Amino acid sequence: MPYHEFECSKCIPERKQHAVTKGPGEDLTSCLPKGYLNTIPGSISERGCAYCGAKHVIGTPMKDVIHLSHGPIGCTYDTWQTKRYISDNGNFQLKYTFATDVREKHIVFGAEKLLKQNIIEAFQQFPDIKRMTIYQTCATALIGDDINAIAEEVMEELPDVDIFICNSPGFAGPSQSGGHHKINIAWINQKVGTVEPTITSDYVINYVGEYNIQGDQEVMQDFFKRMGIQVLSTFTGNGSYDDLRAMHKAHLNVLECARSAEYICNELRVRYGIPRLDIDGFGFEPLSQSLRKVAMFFGIQDRAEAIIAEETARWKPELDWYKERLKGKKVCLWPGGSKLWHWAHVIEEEMGLKVVSVYTKFGHQGDMEKGIARCGEDALAIDDPNELEGLEALEMLKPDIIFTGKRPGEVAKKVGVPYLNAHAYHNGPYKGYEGWVRFARDIYNAIYSPIHQLAALDISRDPIPTDKGFVTQRMLSDASLPEEIRASTTLRQYSGAYDSVTPLRDKTYPTFDSRPAAAE
């Protein structure tokens, strides 16, 4: 077994089984780290909790809902506005967060009265919002508050409101993935089948495991609309509470993020006979195959092929332009659960990048299996790394860029490695054909950014081009500049190959050969 032992974790021998290096000819039986286990004491994990997985990942993207956390105010504050789950109702779910603000006296004497008071007050403050989700937290779960009973009382007193209870305290699982499961099952148990929808098409789907990060869902919905498909509900990006109560009337469940939402798809299949079809909205070829699969289910393949041909012709030349310039660049793929395997192969095949490491903080064994299977030899796979292990991996692998969340990403920037936010994106959406080009552009701009290159200077020893100011690539090619400036090796070294001025939709690009630093 090719385990990788981090120097910083030698005092925790169990951690050795949570990192492997994929060697030549090895399959998943010999290069799969342990995963989705309780955090090892002393490893200082950066995982989220089950409450976070339920509220932050899945619940909060519902747009027309008061999301109320029953617990200390820090719990809801920690899950407020940390992802760009946009909606078309003025981003209500991003602007406001609600908590009962449980304190020591409530732990001693109970917080049920406080909860009821907060529920009624929230509905009074926002009279246009008639739906609420209440999230259990560790503190109120431990003291045994009966949230369900309080919710029933309020719904009897206010018959025009509806309340969903998510009993997913932080300790309900090894990581946030435990919360994914909790809210999936709670939703189908409590709410699915309680509303009858209006059907407007012969082809009706639930789009599941899609959270509308910077508009991802809108991109995919546009493809479905062009194919004549009605999206009955989106679980849960820009999703409406009542639309999601009608999930039982769809003909097909189209599943994007299998890590967070496969549970409700499986239950819809068992209880209502709705089949599940897994798709992938990232990358030209995976997206094209996904559209073909959905179309084939309904017998409308010609509509999918028309979209694929049009979008590919429009955007493939621009993707190829970036691929030529990203070829061979090393990337650490350290995202959430499903992007581990959604991105691992396609960024190599369609962008020319080399994946040197994959990791997941909350993914299951299946996620690691798919991610490692799609990586090449020598890739380092890590389950639930802590900050010190992450830094050690960066020092060893020397990647050109990492795709990860904000916390490890900001740490990477401090050691001179640019990062792109794999959770909330930098300049998304990243789904769709145009979105994939936008992702490539963000990668290109991060790697070749003069700011990152200048930030890597050691001012105690490295030459700093301050004598004539910072000269950009555009200035270097300016014939009016004196020859000694344009020929300056110091300036050429740190000017990079950055060109953020070129619009994404502009097909006229400068030639790469005119960019000295990149050409070298």
UniProtKB/TrEMBL annotation:
Residues 49-447 form the Nitrogenase/oxidoreductase component domain. Keywords: ATP-binding, Iron, Iron-sulfur, Metal-binding, Nitrogen fixation, Nucleotide-binding, Oxidoreductase. It catalyses: N2 + 8 reduced [2Fe-2S]-[ferredoxin] + 16 ATP + 16 H2O = H2 + 8 oxidized [2Fe-2S]-[ferredoxin] + 2 NH4(+) + 16 ADP + 16 phosphate + 6 H(+). Its cofactor is [8Fe-7S] cluster. Its EC number is 1.18.6.1. Pfam families: Oxidored_nitro. GO terms for molecular function: ATP binding; iron-sulfur cluster binding; metal ion binding; nitrogenase activity. InterPro entries: Nase/OxRdtase_comp1, Nase_asu, Nase_comp1_asu, Nase_comp1_CS, Nase_Fe-Fe_asu. It comes from the Bacteria. CDD domains: Nitrogenase_VFe_alpha. Hexamer of two alpha, two beta, and two delta chains. Belongs to the NifD/NifK/NifE/NifN family. This is Nitrogenase protein alpha chain. It comes from Magnetospirillum molischianum DSM 120. The gene is anfD.
